[in-house]
């Protein structure tokens, strides 16, 4: 099963998790991390690292963030590079999470990423999709063989 780390500004993440659990019961491998004004990036990183390890069963973890480029998205992006089968999604909403909840058990992390981005419309994206638009910078001298 894919782990979920819902991480948003203020109490949005906790509200979404609470609503999901109210409807579906306790969700294993799912945690909310709130980013409050004044919270340091270091503390946010520690909270998200704890959530990552608490939700990861080895099948992958999906970071679900509210805004691309904001602190939760940036921290999740850095963490995802160090862990295989980690995806970072931005622009999430409660209705979208509700539509995707059953897919946690049956999809790989990359299939989940592609599906949630397709269902979410133009405001939903992923780190992987953004990287496809902007490929990594390559130095010219790295292009030539010596």
TrEMBL record:
Q: Does the keyword RNA-binding apply?
A: no
Q: Record's InterPro entries? A: Bacterial_PTS_sugar_comp, PTS_EIIA_man-typ, PTS_EIIA_man-typ_sf, PTS_IIA_man
- Lipoprotein among the record's keywords? no
Q: Provide any one GO MF term from the record.
A: transferase activity
**What EC number(s) is this enzyme filed under?**
2.7.1.191
Subcellular localization:
Cytoplasm
Give the PTS EIIA type-4 domain ranges: 1-124
The record's keywords, sorted A to Z, are:
Cytoplasm, Kinase, Phosphotransferase system, Sugar transport, Transferase, Transport
Top-level taxon of the source organism: Bacteria
One Pfam family linked to the record: EIIA-man
What is this protein's record name? Answer: PTS system IIA component yadI
Q: Native species of this protein?
A: Citrobacter europaeus
């Amino acid at each position: 099963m894919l782990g979920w780390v819902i991480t948003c500004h203020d109490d949005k993440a906790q509200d979404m998790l609470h609503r999901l659990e109210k409807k579906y019961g306790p969700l294993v491998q799912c945690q909310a991390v709130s980013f409050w004004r004044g919270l340091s990036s270091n503390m946010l990183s520690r909270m998200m690292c704890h959530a990552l390890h608490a939700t990861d069963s080895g099948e992958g973890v999906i970071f679900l963030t509210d805004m691309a480029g904001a602190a939760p998205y940036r921290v999740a992006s850095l963490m995802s590079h160090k862990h295989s089968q980690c995806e970072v999604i931005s622009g999430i909403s409660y209705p979208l999470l509700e539509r995707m909840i059953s897919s946690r058990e049956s999809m790989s992390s990359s299939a989940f990423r592609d599906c949630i981005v397709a269902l979410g419309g133009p405001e939903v994206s992923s780190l992987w999709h953004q990287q496809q638009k902007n490929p990594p910078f390559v130095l010219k001298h790295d292009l030539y063989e010596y």
